[in-house]
């Protein structure tokens, strides 16, 4: 099983122009096994079949390299908001060990899983935190402290931007992973992004290997400090997205 895992993953890594050592491939395999094992008693993901995990979780997470070309070299400080089972943060850490990663999730039992993965895989320079974006985004330890904020969380772009932009340094970027056609959603979020101190700088759209699943990475550059009004209190960004 490990061999077929390696074979498929290697093919998809080649498409992203990423080379991994054997020990990194082993870390990914161990991560897959932990995901399946824990998923039996808590809801981490609907995707557990090996081939699908490789494509839709691992390769998808690493596709950030399409938008951040120097991801292999730079020591970026990255926060992954609403990380869930660790995507994209943990795959990014395994593939690019020099990155400094903070994983954030509002569910404590998911954070326990993340800590188990970090421990079992022997990962350094990565931490998992329990908290809501609306609260953590006001905390001086995290507000304006990150080069990049990434998120695969499911929320409209206006809401997600309010959750994520406060974490980003001026000059840094928020890069959400979005599914399907997003032009309309992008258009609707432009003013919200502006209010939060950002500007849409680019859009990378592609198909996940061997699927017809469309994926978009939106690059939102932070040009000025986010107003102290944001994020609004818990629940508000999703109930009443900025217009």
UniProtKB/TrEMBL annotation:
Cellular compartments annotated: Cytoplasm
Sequence positions that bind S-adenosyl-L-methionine: 82, 87, 133-134, 152
InterPro entries listed in its UniProt record: rRNA_ssu_MeTfrase_G, SAM-dependent_MTases_sf
Documented EC number(s): 2.1.1.-
Pfam short name (any one): GidB
Enzyme category, top tier: transferase
GO terms for biological process, alphabetical: methylation
Gene Ontology MF terms in the entry: methyltransferase activity
Keywords: Cytoplasm, Methyltransferase, rRNA processing, S-adenosyl-L-methionine, Transferase
Principal place of residence: cytoplasm
Coiled coil spans: none
Summary of the function given for this chain in its UniProt record: Specifically methylates the N7 position of a guanine in 16S rRNA.
Family to which this protein belongs: Belongs to the methyltransferase superfamily. RNA methyltransferase RsmG family.
Protein name: Ribosomal RNA small subunit methyltransferase G
Organism: Lacrimispora xylanolytica
High-level lineage: Bacteria, Bacillati, Bacillota, Clostridia, Lachnospirales
């Amino acid at each position: 099983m490990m061999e077929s895992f390696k074979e498929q993953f290697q093919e998809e890594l080649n498409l992203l122009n990423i080379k991994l050592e054997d020990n990194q491939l082993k870390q990914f395999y161990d991560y897959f096994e932990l995901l399946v094992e824990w998923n039996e008693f808590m809801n981490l993901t609907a995707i557990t079949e090996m081939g699908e995990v490789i494509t839709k979780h691992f390769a998808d997470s690493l596709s950030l390299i399409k938008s951040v070309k120097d991801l292999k070299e730079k020591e970026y400080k990255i926060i992954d908001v609403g990380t869930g089972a660790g995507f994209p943060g943990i795959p990014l850490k395994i593939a690019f060990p020099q990155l400094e990663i903070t994983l954030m999730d509002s569910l404590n039992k998911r954070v326990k899983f993340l800590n188990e993965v970090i421990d079992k895989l022997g990962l350094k320079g990565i931490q998992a935190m329990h908290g809501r974006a609306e609260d953590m985004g006001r905390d001086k330890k995290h507000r304006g402290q990150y080069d990049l904020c990434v998120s695969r969380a499911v929320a409209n772009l206006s809401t997600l931007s309010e959750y994520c932009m406060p974490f980003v340094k001026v000059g840094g970027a928020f890069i959400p992973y979005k599914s399907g056609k997003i032009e309309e959603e992008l258009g609707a979020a432009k003013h919200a992004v502006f209010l939060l101190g950002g500007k849409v700088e680019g859009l990378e759209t592609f198909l996940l290997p061997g699927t017809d699943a469309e994926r978009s990475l939106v690059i939102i550059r932070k040009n000025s400090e986010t107003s102290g009004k944001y994020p609004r209190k818990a629940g508000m960004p999703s109930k009443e997205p900025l217009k």
